[in-house]
Every structure is written in structure tokens, then in C-alpha cells.
């Protein structure tokens, strides 16, 4: 059928990260011995205290509509978190709780974008940024970053693409897919630039609890002017292994938060009441599980970086945070593996899936075809097996 459907909708691609993750899970369920480095999803169970609180919420009938922008207990817990972790003072009127950080980013864009406004993002970018900008009637503007600069953009890069249509930048530190972290000095320069040009900063800090080298600083905490221009994004998925519970949140100036609250009241209404109560316990309760998960991620990262750099044809930098490694595959391009020519990251990802039974995300999903992304949100045993398979197929 040839339906007269939305032209905008037709231009939106599906999420390659979610697609490959789902494909690997299905293959596994069908008995195929697949090892997945695809998932951007902690492999740990949600901590027990959080699970129990979810059950309590169900048993006690906390299963009704809540205020559209979230329950006050969770907003207060989030305000305290911002104060303690990020030295940021927010009131509950600044906080909006949504169905995951992805939803929070979408809400942020809807609140600030007018048709044709430009939003700057760095390449490699997290898959959903360009699509979310397009859905919000904005135009994604890309700045290429370099591996030798830790995949970070600078004010010089931003100035090259600045126009009178520039409305916002998306900053993601710690970064998916590169694991890079912006230093305080780098953030200061970006903040000064944003203030000077009156540009919003959407600061996606979802990986803040997963920092192995250096420290996480929220750009909003640098001064009052940049705080007013920044929409801080965070959520429960990564820090508390709660991907399926769908709770994300943002902090913004109250005028922007109000717009978002209004929009959300007509689109999704409140995020799941049960998940909200469970999140209060996640944020205010014992943080040992988060610390323990981080320790395990760090050990996996160290093993992976060393092993990848010992495999002929592959190389990578040591990421400082999150749980991803961008593996440089430029040396492989033009070679054949099992009779299949490798021209780009899709070819290599396909060979790894079909011939080595290893799932990875092709770099093109993040805008850079010279890489594949490996997630280390999987067990050490899987990591060892998976890397062994990759090594075998490359050294054959
Ligand atoms: N931002 C980044 C950089 C991510 O990698 C993810 C991945 N899940 C999200 C936001 C969204 O997370 P969620 O919607 O599960 O909270
Ligand atoms: N953010 C994760 C990733 O990049 C999960 C998938 C998604 O939300 O796109 O793999």
C-alpha cells in the first residue's frame, strides 16, 4: 500500500542499538550461541531494595495516575541528589520525571526548538540524538571529533558551525559511544561560548556514576548563567540497572520545566507510578550496588582495552567512563575475511555476527564508519569468549 503518511516520520530511522540488541537476544533465545557486545544495558539485576519497593508500591495500591511531571517524593530525592553529587541547587519546580532519559531529551528539545532551529552534536554521537532533533523539527548540525583529541569538540569546532539558527548543543559526558569525559576547563570554555551566544546546552549526564578516570562535572554547576541555559538530563537506567523501568529526569529553568510539564501532560501523562516509587529508594537508598557495578565495569574495561589492542587490525583508546569502547577498524578496510570484503563498519559487524557469532554496533550508527562499538555491559566470561572469537576470525 502507498499510504500518504508523515514525510517527517519517513525520515526517522530505527535505533540501530536497540535493533541489534533485540536481534542478538532473539538469536540467543533461538538457541544460537551468540555473544553480544551490543547492549547499552547493564547486565546486573535491579538491586533488591529497589525491586522490593516496586512490589510494595503495587501491593499498597500506588498504581494510579500521579502528577504528570512526577511525584514530589522523587523530585525531592532528585533535588538532593543534584545538591550532593553535582553541587546544583534546584527546587522541585525545576524537575520533570519522564519515561527514560531518552524521553527527557525529547521533551527538552520540544520545549526549545522552533522549526529549522539548529542543534549541534559531535560525531560520533549517540544514535538517538539526530533523530530526536529531527522529530522535534530541528536540524542536527554535526561537528567531527578526532580520536587523538579523545573524541571531544572544542569552542573552535563549535564556532565553525555557529549560525543565527543555532539553538542548542547536546553535550554528553561521560560519552556514549566514546567513553570520553570533558574536563572542568573544557566545560568552562563551552559554557562561556554558550553564554556569549545565548545557546542552550542539553547536558546528557546519564553515565555520571560510571567514571573510572577523572571526575564528572555538570556544566550547569559552573555558574548561574550557564545553569539557566542548561537542561540537565539524567536517569535510573544505567546507574541502577533499571533500563526496563523507564525512569529518566531533567532539571531546567522553571519556565522551561513548565513548558515540558504541559507537553508531557498531553502526551504520556506521568511515568509509571510503581517505577517512580522504586526510584526514590534507588536514589536515596544504599548506593553500594552502584559502586559494585562500577568496579566490575572498570575491571572489564581494563581487560578489553588490553586485549583489543593485542588483536591485529584493531585498536582502541582507553575510555574514561560509561561502558563502551570505540574500536578503530581502519586497518581492516579493504581486506577480506572468510571471502567477504570489508569496506565499512556495517560489513565488519555483519561478518562478526554471521561468521563469529558476535554482535557489535557498527560505527556508522554513531556517524563514523571507521569504528565499531563494543559494550562491556556483559559478563567477563562473555567478554573473554567474544574477544577470542573476534581474534580467531581476524587471525585466520
Ligand atoms: N542518553 C544516552 C547517552 C544513552 O546512552 C541512553 C541509553 N539508554 C539514554 C540517554 C537513554 O536512556 P534511558 O531512556 O533508558 O533512560
Ligand atoms: N543507550 C543504549 C545504547 O546506546 C541503549 C539503547 C538505546 O537506548 O538506544 O546501546
Distance between the termini: 47 Å
Bound molecules: 4'-deoxy-4'-aminopyridoxal-5'-phosphate, glutamic acid
Which fold name is given in CATH as the topology of the largest domain? Aspartate Aminotransferase, domain 2
CATH C-level name of the largest domain: Alpha Beta
The number of helices is 14
> If strands are numbered along the chain, what order do they take across the biggest sheet?
2-8-7-6-5-3-4
Q: List the domain count as a whole number.
A: 2
| Helix and strand pattern | HHEHHEHEHEHEHEHEEHHHEEEEHEEEH
As a percent range, the share of strand residues is 15-25%
User: Which class do the helix and strand fractions yield?
Assistant: alpha/beta
Secondary structure elements and pairings:
Elements: H1 7-10, H2 16-29, E1 35-36, H3 48-59, H4 72-86, E2 95-98, H5 101-112, E3 118-123, H6 128-135, E4 139-144, H7 155-161, E5 166-172, H8 184-197, E6 200-204, H9 224-229, E7 230-235, E8 248-251, H10 254-267, H11 273-284, H12 288-309, E9 315-316, E10 324-328, E11 336-337, E12 340-341, H13 345-356, E13 358-359, E14 361-362, E15 371-375, H14 380-395
Bound molecules: 4'-deoxy-4'-aminopyridoxal-5'-phosphate and glutamic acid.
Glutamic acid binds next to helix 2.
Summarize it.
This protein is an alpha/beta fold and 396 residues long. It has helices at residues 7-10, 16-29, 48-59, 72-86, 101-112, 128-135, 155-161, 184-197, 224-229, 254-267, 273-284, 288-309, 345-356, 380-395, and strands spanning 35-36, 95-98, 118-123, 139-144, 166-172, 200-204, 230-235, 248-251, 315-316, 324-328, 336-337, 340-341, 358-359, 361-362, 371-375. It has 2 domains: 7-45 and 289-395, Aspartate Aminotransferase, domain 1; 48-284, Aspartate Aminotransferase, domain 2 (3-Layer(aba) Sandwich).
Amino acid at each position: 500500500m502507498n499510504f500518504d503518511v508523515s514525510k517527517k516520520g519517513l525520515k526517522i530511522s530505527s535505533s540501530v542499538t536497540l535493533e541489534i540488541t533485540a536481534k542478538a537476544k532473539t538469536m540467543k533465545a533461538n538457541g544460537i550461541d551468540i555473544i553480544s557486545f551490543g547492549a547499552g544495558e547493564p547486565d546486573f539485576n535491579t538491586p533488591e531494595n529497589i525491586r522490593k519497593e516496586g512490589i510494595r508500591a503495587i501491593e499498597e495500591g500506588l498504581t494510579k495516575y500521579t502528577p504528570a511531571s512526577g511525584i514530589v517524593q522523587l523530585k525531592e530525592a532528585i533535588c538532593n541528589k543534584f545538591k550532593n553529587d553535582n553541587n546544583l541547587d534546584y527546587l522541585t519546580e525545576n524537575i520533570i520525571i519522564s519515561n527514560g532519559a531518552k524521553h527527557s531529551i525529547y521533551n527538552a528539545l520540544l520545549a526549545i526548538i522552533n522549526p529549522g532551529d539548529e542543534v549541534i552534536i559531535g560525531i560520533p554521537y549517540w544514535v538517538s540524538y539526530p533523530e530526536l532533533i529531527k522529530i522535534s523539527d530541528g536540524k542536527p548540525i554535526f561537528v567531527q571529533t578526532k580520536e587523538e583529541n579523545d573524541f571531544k569538540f572544542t569552542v573552535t569546532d563549535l564556532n565553525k558551525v555557529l549560525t543565527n539558527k543555532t539553538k542548542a548543543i547536546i553535550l554528553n559526558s561521560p560519552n556514549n559511544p566514546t567513553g570520553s569525559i570533558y574536563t572542568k576547563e573544557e566545560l568552562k570554555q563551552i559554557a562561556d561560548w554558550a553564554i556569549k551566544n545565548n545557546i542552550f546546552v542539553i547536558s546528557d549526564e546519564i553515565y555520571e556514576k560510571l567514571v573510572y578516570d577523572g571526575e564528572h562535572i555538570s556544566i550547569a554547576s559552573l555558574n548561574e548563567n550557564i545553569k539557566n541555559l542548561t537542561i540537565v538530563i539524567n536517569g535510573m537506567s544505567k546507574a541502577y540497572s533499571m533500563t526496563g523501568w523507564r525512569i529518566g529526569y531533567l532539571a531546567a529553568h522553571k519556565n522551561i520545566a513548565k513548558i515540558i510539564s504541559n507537553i508531557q501532560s498531553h502526551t504520556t501523562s506521568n511515568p509509571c507510578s510503581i517505577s517512580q516509587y522504586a526510584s526514590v529508594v534507588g536514589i536515596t537508598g544504599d548506593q553500594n550496588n552502584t559502586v559494585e557495578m562500577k568496579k566490575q565495569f572498570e575491571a572489564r574495561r581494563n581487560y578489553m582495552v588490553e586485549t583489543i589492542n593485542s588483536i591485529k587490525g584493531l585498536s582502541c583508546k582507553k575510555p574514561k567512563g560509561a561502558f563502551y569502547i570505540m574500536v578503530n577498524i581502519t586497518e581492516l578496510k579493504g581486506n577480506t575475511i572468510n571471502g567477504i570484503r570489508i569496506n565499512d563498519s556495517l560489513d565488519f559487524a555483519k561478518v562478526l555476527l554471521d561468521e563469529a557469532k558476535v554482535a557489535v554496533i557498527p560505527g556508522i550508527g554513531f556517524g563514523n564508519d571507521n569504528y565499531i562499538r563494543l559494550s562491556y555491559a556483559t559478563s567477563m566470561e562473555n567478554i573473554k569468549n567474544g574477544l577470542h572469537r573476534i581474534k580467531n576470525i581476524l587471525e585466520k
